[in-house]
Specification:
CATH topology of the largest domain: Rossmann fold
Distance between the termini: 60 Å
Number of domains: 3
Number of strands: 18
Structural class: alpha/beta
CATH superfamily of the largest domain: Vaccinia Virus protein VP39
Number of helices: 17
Radius of gyration: 28 Å
Strand order of the largest sheet: 4-3-2-5-6-9-7
CATH architecture of the largest domain: 3-Layer(aba) Sandwich
CATH class of the largest domain: Alpha Beta
């Protein structure tokens, strides 16, 4: 198992991906199943190959052009009966699409100098799409190419390639990959792109593909000209106007013309939740599209509210964090982690934590997080207590326990009850209240305290739950109270 003495070769476009996080994201995006047969293009030294074989895939077929790497790959992975290595040019090696040996998914670190031809081989064209298509392709590509493939109408990256690829399948960003993730680092940024080709019955009819290609070439060859001028000569002017009108196309439009600001809307099953522009979810969505400078992006968001309003349990903050994550996938964009954290902190002090999850200590406005290693090593029991109704609460403007507890006497009394619970390690208020919690050595301790305190907590109008802390977050395991 050796690649000693081998150097990355410029003529092969070799840059080894060495970032473990990116490698793991590629494997996760492939959504591998035990029945999958995976095609890997350009395995290099086998960093990704190792992870693919660590899964339960039925087979892995790899194509490598560099004969010096082939020797090392066979030494390293040859003993695994699922591994098959083909030495050759991926553009010339036949891809079997029929029969039990056909691959179902593709994972490829595409050499940037053959991106176009390899995409056509793996996905096909509008006139001749690959049939049957792969279930999904996870491709590491130059970021500029990835942005063009998944670009939306009205953006500067939108092109004929965008239209063609998006008519062949769903295309979305998995993650950005900066040069530092490679050895040697390339001079350009990269990204991981996920393509899920459409089934034959959902694709553009082949007979219309030729006409569409002609239209695309004309329209995007002169992106700033009006369609009336770029399409002139295809049909007589009167007929062109009629056809465009019937299709709802404005011949005065330009392919590069930005669209107006798209609408952001919110619907919620809790009528007491404001759906106005001050809502944290809509502020998160508006902040995200402002950061990337794409006002034409829109979304209709539906929220099923399960955490009580004003409970101090980060319900609104977790909704905002989920919005930031989901809209990046929906819109095919990706903020750098530092920029995302800064945006989250501007929305609320605990929004950054909700992005990360797990057991963390927060500093500053909440944008700086550090793992709570001492807690992560233990599975502590948690008794979580909150008022059943927050409708009678006075306005709470201070998130300090010493200020809130005197203003809301029931919160102070709940804190007092929890401090008396046998085995309580720590007692505190959650956020700005009115929820409070106590930590115990284990879940049994929390459940025992809940049984002892059930009657006085109910008398104060509190509901309670028991759960356990986990390094990856918190999940409710026992609901011991009223609704």
């Amino acid at each position: 198992m050796t690649f000693s003495g081998h150097r990355a070769r410029h003529r092969f476009g070799q840059h080894w991906l060495i970032d473990a996080t990116v490698l793991d994201q590629i494997v996760a995006a492939a959504a591998l199943q035990p029945h999958d047969r995976v095609l890997e293009v350009g395995p290099g030294r086998g960093a990704l190959t190792q992870r693919l074989l660590a899964s339960e895939v039925a087979a892995l077929e790899a194509i490598e052009l560099d004969r010096d790497l082939v020797t090392g790959l066979r030494q390293r992975f040859g003993p695994d009966p699922r591994f098959q290595l083909i030495e050759g040019d991926a553009l010339r090696v036949p891809i079997e699409r029929q029969g039990p040996g056909a691959c179902t998914k593709v994972v490829a670190n595409i050499p940037y100098n053959i991106t176009g031809p390899l995409l056509q081989k793996l996905v096909g064209s509008l006139a001749a799409p690959l049939t049957p298509p792969f279930e999904r392709l996870v491709l590491l590509v130059q970021r500029e190419v990835g942005e063009r493939i998944r670009a939306q109408p009205g953006t500067s990256a939108y092109s004929a390639l965008s239209v063609r690829m998006q008519l062949l399948g769903h295309c979305r960003l998995v993650c950005p990959v900066p040069p530092r993730c490679f050895k040697p680092p390339p001079k350009v940024d990269s990204e991981v792109l996920l393509i899920e080709p459409f089934a034959p019955g959902s694709r553009l009819a082949a007979e219309g593909a030729g006409v569409l290609d002609t239209l695309l070439r004309r329209c995007f060859a002169s992106r700033r000209k009006m369609l009336r001028n770029t399409l002139a000569g295809l049909l007589p002017p009167e007929q062109l106007q009629f056809v465009a009108g019937a299709a709802g196309v404005d011949l005065a439009a330009r392919p590069l013309r930005p669209t107006a600001d798209a609408q952001l809307s919110l619907a919620c099953d809790d009528p007491s939740l404001s759906s106005g522009p001050d809502n944290l979810i809509l502020r998160a969505a508006e902040g995200l599209r402002a950061r990337v400078g794409l006002p034409e992006l829109g979304a209709a968001i539906t929220l099923e509210k399960r955490i009580p309003l004003g409970a101090g349990l980060a319900g609104g903050s977790s909704d905002a964090a989920a919005t930031l994550l989901a809209l990046q996938v929906l819109w095919g964009i990706a903020l750098e982690p530092a920029a995302l954290m800064d945006l989250a902190a501007a929305l609320g002090s605990d929004v950054p934590y909700c992005l990360e999850g797990g057991l963390q200590l927060s500093f500053g406005r909440g944008e700086r997080l550090e793992p709570a290693d001492a807690l992560a090593e233990r599975s502590l029991g948690v008794l979580l207590v909150t008022l059943k109704s927050q409708s009678a609460l006075p306005p709470l403007r201070n998130d300090l326990q010493s200020v809130v507890a005197p203003e809301v006497p029931s919160v102070g009394r709940a804190l007092g009850l929890l401090r008396q619970a046998p085995g309580a390690l720590a007692v505190a208020m959650s956020g700005s209240g009115p929820s409070v919690f106590a930590l115990f050595d284990d879940g049994t301790g929390a459940e025992r305290a809940a049984a002892i305190l059930a009657e006085p907590l109910a008398a104060e109008g509190f509901a309670w739950w028991c759960t356990r802390t986990r390094a990856s977050g918190v999940s409710l395991e026992a609901d011991s109270s009223a609704p």
